[in-house]
Amino acid sequence: MEDFGFILDPAFEATSVSVGKLPLCEVCLQADARWPWLVLIPQKLGLREIEDLNVVQRGQLIEEAVAAGAAVRAVGGVLGLPVEKLNLGALGNVTPQLHLHLVGRRAGDPAWPGPVWGVGAAQAYPVETLAQAVVAARSALNIC
Amino acid sequence: MEDFGFILDPAFEATSVSVGKLPLCEVCLQADARWPWLVLIPQKLGLREIEDLNVVQRGQLIEEAVAAGAAVRAVGGVLGLPVEKLNLGALGNVTPQLHLHLVGRRAGDPAWPGPVWGVGAAQAYPVETLAQAVVAARSALNIC
Asked: Residues B39, B101: contact at Cβ < 8 Å?
């Protein structure tokens, strides 16, 4: 995937940590220990909507989303928050650079059964847990 | 697409009207005139997560989602609510049958910039507008 000139919106750097890169997307771990939560950002300039990707890229996006779902389950294992339902969302109302959220949900979680976006304040990860979560996500995504 | 035995969850029938069928998904118009809003439901039994589809079906799903985005813009035209940003969501925390929301958003809409799910009470469509919206969505989706 050509990523020449791609720049990650600083909004992601403020709220997440980098996990690594897949062929299409950069993967970030949302810095909020209330949910196992990854964000996929396609590494191309000027994207706002999924329709801005071509058909091959869209197929790659949904495959990377499925892989990220498995990684979210792995992060849930680290957090002791087993995933009962995956939530996928591409909103972009606040940060317009195209990105896809994969969030692991469970009955009784702090926003259940509503969506997580905009709910309360993020809960920081303990440093050691954050490191373990990144390792677990990289392993699930086969990022070396 | 084989849909033998597929049954639409009654929850969709209570909150939306059928627009028609694409190769993979049944398409419904959410009966809430606050936003142009379509729901795609893959016509296969027992699906809960996107990972439950195979790779061919997943490619089809994202293409149908892109087509549904165009249809949401057409519905926005009928409603006089031009779409500035598409929101895509697959949550399923309340209704577990796999489904994908495509919602047309605009700055200042009743939930902006937060997500629409669970916000306030649905606003009924005027009967004539509902019929026009279904026609516009069918036309955008090439459903005859």
From this structure: yes
Interface test with B, best of A55, A66, A91 (most B CBs within 10 A): A91
* B2 in any annotated domain: no
pLDDT of B4 above 80: no
User: Which residue in A has a C-alpha nearest to residue B90's C-alpha?
Assistant: A88
Tell me the β-bridge partners of B20.
B27
Give the distance from residue B98's alpha carbon to the nearest chain A alpha carbon, in angstroms. Answer: 11
pLDDT tens, residue by residue, A77-86: 999 999 999 9
- Domain range for B81 is 10-140
What order of strands is seen across the sheet that includes strand A37-42?
A16-21, A25-30, A37-42, A100-105, A85-90, B85-90, B100-105, B37-42, B25-30, B16-21
Give a yes or no: residue A114 inside a domain: yes
Contacts of B91 in chain A (CB under 8 A): 85, 87-89, 115
Decide if B82 is inside a domain.
Answer: yes
Q: Which residues of A touch B (CB under 8 A)?
A: 48-51, 55, 58-59, 61-63, 65-66, 69-70, 85-94, 96, 105, 112-115, 117-118
Query: What does the alpha-carbon distance between residue A25 and residue B142 come to, in Å, rounded to a whole number?
Result: 31
pLDDT value, residue B52 = 98
- Beta carbons of B50 and A65 less than 8 Å apart: yes
Instruction: Work out the mean pLDDT of chain A and round it to a whole number.
Output: 96
Provide the CATH number for the domain around residue B21: 3.30.428.10
Residue A14 falls inside a structural domain = yes
Domain count of chain A?
1
Chain A contact set for B117 (CB, 8 A): 114-115
ipTM, interface predicted TM-score of the complex: 0.95
* pTM assigned to the model: 0.96
Computed over every residue of chain B, the mean pLDDT equals 96
A87 and B86 within 8 Å at the Cβ level: the answer is: no
Nearest chain A Cα distance for residue B126, angstroms: 28
Please write the tens of the pLDDT for every residue from A24-60: 999 999 999 999 999 999 999 999 999 999 999 999 9
Start-to-end Cα distance in chain A: 17
